[in-house]
Design brief:
Elements lengths: L15 H17 L5 H4 L3 H4 L12 E6 L7 E5 L2 E6 L6 H19 L7 E5 L5 H13 L5 E4 L6
Parallel strand pairs: 1-4, 4-5
Antiparallel strand pairs: 1-2, 2-3
Length: about 160
Amino acid sequence: MAARTEAAEPTRPDMTPMIDVVFQLIVFFLVSMKFKTLDELIETPFRAGGPRQHAPEIPPLHVALRAADRSAPVRLVVNGVEFGTVDGSRSGPAWSRFAEHVARVRRSAAELRAPPPRAEIDASPAVASGRVVAALDVLAGAGVTDVRFQGTKPPR
């Protein structure tokens, strides 16, 4: 048996079938892909099942607690209307008027089928935190759960 002196040529895999399969997969996914059209992005009354009834939005309750210094009485102002001076016990006439006002706003929102009103508490730096918590308790007791705080910068 004679020995081969020539070097064997390296084998190379044929890439043509693999490239054909990749192109067929690309074409398949492009053809089967569903693009959203502009008509599908816009919600029309017919697509939504009739005209939508938008509930009126109740304006937020701006609750301001103001005091000149720590020893001064704290004034309770809601949407620009002053309710009087308040103490930390939540038992004065201003607190009861405030609770009645918040309950009235909450009831009117429910009658209009609007979402509950939002409240924003803004307290001056001289107001004790107990009075802020008391205002928060009144709001929570009336069913106002979306309460945000507006901060004021402390004096330098």
